[in-house]
């Protein structure tokens, strides 16, 4: 039996969103590129890197975050063959959170301990993950938008949102923890599995 063909309009929408993600992830490296103009101010490249560890760390962390969010989004829509206006709006709103992320990333490099920086940075991740959870919920309620093989389940997304929100609260209430509470994300999958067992 032939698989349903993906709607051409949806293909264009996904390609457009992928292009935005690619641009956003490229923008992350621009502050590092600009550092090369200051190489004469340092004794060596090693010295430049040591002095700008915060910028390098912020780049690597945000690259990993955007890549992870893109993989989650990709997994969410891989079985989608059609779309409606609400799904399109959710995906575009998700893309907005990704395009915005280089801004708080730059702030993390300059003012990592500022509470507003933490709110913007981790808050962007919370919002992005929450939107993908809504996409999963939309597809679970409207399986006709998929090829029939989709196993859309918002539980994983909800667990990630909960862990990110908890990380945000902890880092704001206990500033000394810095961004370490983001490691709570490692508990998201076990939490989702535990929730599923409780429901069965």
Automatic annotation (TrEMBL):
Please write the reaction equations for the catalytic activity of this protein: K(+)(in) = K(+)(out)
Q: Which UniProt keywords apply?
A: Ion channel, Ion transport, Membrane, Potassium, Potassium channel, Potassium transport, Transmembrane, Transmembrane helix, Transport
Query: What organism is the protein native to?
Result: Nocardioides cavernae
TM ranges are 13-33, 54-71, 91-109, 161-188
Q: Where would you find this protein in the cell?
A: Membrane
**Topological relation to the membrane, as annotated:** Multi-pass membrane protein
Output this protein's name.
Answer: DUF1211 domain-containing protein
Name the protein family.
Answer: Belongs to the TMEM175 family.
- InterPro entries, per this entry? TMEM175-like
Q: What is its main location?
A: membrane
Annotated Pfam families: TMEM175
| Iron-sulfur recorded as keyword | no
């Amino acid at each position: 039996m032939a698989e349903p063909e993906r709607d051409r309009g949806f293909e264009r929408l996904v390609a457009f969103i992928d292009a935005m993600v690619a641009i956003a992830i490229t923008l992350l490296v621009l502050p590092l590129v600009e550092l090369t103009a200051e190489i004469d101010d340092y004794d060596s490249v090693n010295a430049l890197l040591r002095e700008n560890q915060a910028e390098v760390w912020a780049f690597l962390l945000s690259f990993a975050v955007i890549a992870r969010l893109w993989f989650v989004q990709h997994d969410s829509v891989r079985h989608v063959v059609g779309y409606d206006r609400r799904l399109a709006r959710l995906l575009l709103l998700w893309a907005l959170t990704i395009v915005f992320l280089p801004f708080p990333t730059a702030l993390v490099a300059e003012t990592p301990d500022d509470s507003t920086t933490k709110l913007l940075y981790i808050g962007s991740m919370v919002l992005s993950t929450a939107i993908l959870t809504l996409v999963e919920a939309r597809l679970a309620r409207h399986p006709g938008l998929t090829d029939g093989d989709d196993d859309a389940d918002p539980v994983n997304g909800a667990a990630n949102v909960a862990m990110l929100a908890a990380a945000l609260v902890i880092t704001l209430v206990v500033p000394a923890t810095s961004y370490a509470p983001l490691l709570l994300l490692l508990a998201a999958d076990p939490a989702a599995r535990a929730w599923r067992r409780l429901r069965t």
